[in-house]
Design brief:
By secondary structure, the chain is mostly helical. It has two helices and no strands. The mean pLDDT is 84. It comes from Thioclava nitratireducens.
Length: 73
């Protein structure tokens, strides 16, 4: 039983790989922040693009010339 506690103590004191763990945690947090920012931007632009599409659909195009002015071949 004493050997088990000694082994656990050695494992907890060992710092090999700590930099790798820090790198993975920092990278994962940055990826998570990127996903959150993308989700926020996506929802906001979806609403605005819908309003723009509705506005464009309601516009009427009127030409500045009449059909008589179009050259006939």
């Amino acid at each position: 039983m004493n050997k088990v506690f000694k082994r656990i103590r050695q494992t907890l004191r060992c710092e090999d790989g700590a930099v790798t763990v820090d790198w993975v945690v920092l990278t994962a947090s940055l990826v998570g922040l990127g996903f959150m920012a993308t989700a926020i931007i996506w929802t906001q632009t979806a609403g605005v693009s819908g309003k723009i599409a509705t506005y464009i659909d309601t516009q009427e195009v009127t030409p500045l010339f009449s059909e008589d002015e179009i050259p006939k071949e």
